[in-house]
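stuck on this one:
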Amino acid sequence: MSNAIKFTDSGSVKLELHTAPSQQTFVNEALNRAESVVAVSVRDTGIGVPADKLRLIFEAFQQADGTTSRRYGGTGLGLSISREIAVLLGGEIRAESTEGEGSSFTLFLPLRYESGAQDVRTATDVVVVEAGGGAVAAPVPAALEPARAPADDLVPEVLAEPDAEMVKAGIEDDRRRIAPGDSTMLAIQSDPTFAKEALAAARSAGYRVILSARGETGAALAREVRPTAIMLDTVLPVTGGLTVLQHLKRDSSTRHIPVLVISDENQRQEALKSGAFAYLDKPVKPKDLTACIDEMTSFIERDARTLLIVEDDPTERQSLVELIGAEEPDVDVVATGSSKQALEELDKGSIDCMVLDLKLPDMGGFDLLEKVKKEERFNDLPVIVYTGRDLTRREETRLRKYAQSIIAKDVSSPERLLDETALFLHRVEARMPTEQRRMLEQLHSADVVFRDKKVLVVDDDARNVFALTSALESRGMSVVFAENGKEGLATLKKNADVDLILMDIMMPEMDGYEAMRAVRVMPQHATLPIIALTAKAMKGDREKSIAAGASDYIKKPVDMDQLLSLMRVWLYE
């Protein structure tokens, strides 16, 4: 209905419900077997779709004409998602259209749904036939399996049953052989071939291994088992690996567990920023995997982790030492006042995390960071930039190439610094001193940073605006919104006190990229936090968003916890 209205300037849009003719045949055999089939049609007199483009519109991120996204907005996801949902319901969607005359989209569903009765094919093609001057498209259903319960709903008995995907591949893990005191490795990996390699490497390092082929199940296992270490692939069905990592690092019960991330998607910086212990690119060489597991084991077996603080002000340096806990048994703090001393400490090879001020007497923080990160052995070294200077956009972009976190010195920065160092040192929050735990609990549980903040939401989908507004207002924020980039700029000019912008990318008239570039030329908003929201999460989109002026980037559908976490970072700054 929404599409029909959007693409119809004159004439009519009709919604029709009827029973499909008994002699009609369908691509989905579940419909052919059904006693009765219901048809729900939306017919319009809009712009129509050319016959050679009718196949295309059912594919993700596609529209009939590249110009429609400029005029009408949208990502081209709606029909692709609808097709998959129709299959899960035992049905299918067909489209009929004549260019310049209109279109008809019909959803066919069995009157009575029988679980498992679908003849779900493995193809995802769309059959197109000519029909009376127009064309008819009948998408062939894709192979799908029913959605699994989210991790929070999984019962504790999840450990009792081996992962079905691995059992099918003939791979058996160690879950039934784990004894008290055993070191355990949770391997969240959907590729059976690599799972075998991971199993062998972890066992040879002395671990009992639990395998999971799905992200949500792996997250539940992590909370239940509290493994010694985790090996996490980013390419997983349903819930991606980076989302799992972020959930693990937001949960105080699993936050301290070292996670080795393995990916073929060039996600090193994002993984390390989220708290990964180490990162390996696919294809992974066995010797590299073994070396990484050995390094992680050595880290785990050490009684204390070492933090290097590089700060030229003696008073500030001492306050940081006291904040982190110089006398705590789980952390050793090494404090220096110059780049030369910092390099000497790094050369000793025992630093697990570095806190770096940019103002240093002999070599500036920028140059020190670039010098350190040129060495391969420091690729995964977590660096937290802790600075009192106002950074230009160019400086911030330069820093984010090497640093996992940037914290501006202000009234709330000590809590954030303690939180970030605890994350990258993999400290067990329950074992930290009472005062430190209190600071972290207050930081994580309180939404004081959101109170009385004004957020501009720029999105052409009313449902997204409603969902975001509800969530933000419930945390004490006020929200103003606009339906496209052009309206967003006008709204911003009327609301100069906006504290943060949530900017959709795919919008009509003016898209998010153009709108962000326009915001950045306004002197008063040159540093205003902008978080880009996009469903078109393709390789390079993050870099394109940052280049256009975004402060950060998040994929749709939006994980609200992840979004709020990002907003906390930028509103603190």
About this structure: Residues 60-75, 117-133, 140-158 have pLDDT under 50 and may be disordered. The chain has four domains: 2-139, 151-301, 305-445, 448-572. The chain has 21 helices and 21 strands. The CA atoms of residues 215 and 244 lie 6 Å apart.
